[in-house]
Amino acid sequence: MGDREILLTKEEIHRRVRELGQEISRRYAGDHLIVVGVLKGAWIFMADLVRSMDIDVFCDFVRVASYGSGTQSSGQVCLLYWPDLDFSGKKVLVVDDIADTGLTLVFLRQKFMEEGAVSVEFCVLLDKPSRRKTEFKPDYVGFTILDHFVVGYGMDFNERFRNMPHVEVYKD
Ligand code: IMP
Ligand code: MG
Fold first, then answer.
1. Distance between alpha carbon 42 and the CA centroid of its chain, in Å?
2. 8 Å CB contact between 83 and 36
3. Which residues line ligand 1 (CB under 6 A)?
4. What is the pLDDT along the chain (172 residues), one digit of tens a residue?
């Protein structure tokens, strides 16, 4: 990568993730919570987030593919992996790296409600509200950012850069 623009340092991320973990722990104190990460981007964020929570949680993941060409996001989401858990009567927290168009997360809310979840909340590391194509507001947001394409801390460009401990703006 040429000129680097570091958006969030490792320290900034860790401080904010700890705050989110504490906030979520207070919100769900005494509850049985299922934390579901959206693969693959949420994997590193979720690992840090659940370790900063001091409540008892079940962890699992979903993997989705969204179809659409170029700028035309169809909003059609295909499930590639779905947890083998009973969601009926359960509270679900979906964890994702970025809320972008919001189409995937709206689809997942619907899906968890159909499975009988009593509540579905969303925690994202980054929110890009200017990119939204549907009405969607995450319940817990690490940082709100402008419409930059970012990599690091789990986020990739063609599968690269996921293991960078910070977040930077991707430049060719
Ligand atoms: P959406 O909200 O349904 O559009 O899905 C957003 C997904 O697109 C995120 O979970 C990421 O996996 C991916 N994505 C969006 N913006 C970026 C970015 O800046 N860097 C890396 N992945 C991104
Ligand atoms: Mg993703």
1. 5
2. yes
3. 38, 41, 66, 96-105, 149-151, 155
4. 557 899 999 999 999 999 999 999 999 999 999 999 999 999 999 999 999 999 999 999 999 998 655 545 566 789 999 999 999 999 999 999 999 999 999 999 999 999 999 999 999 999 999 999 999 999 999 999 999 999 999 999 999 999 999 999 999 7
Ligand nearest the Cα of residue 102 is 1
**Nearest to 142, CA basis, from 102, 98, 108, 83:** 98
Q: Which atom of ligand 1 is nearest to 99's Cα?
A: 2
Q: For the structural domain made of 5-169, what CATH number should be given?
A: 3.40.50.2020
Every domain of the chain and the residues it spans: 5-169
CA of residue 48 to ligand 2 center, whole Å:
16
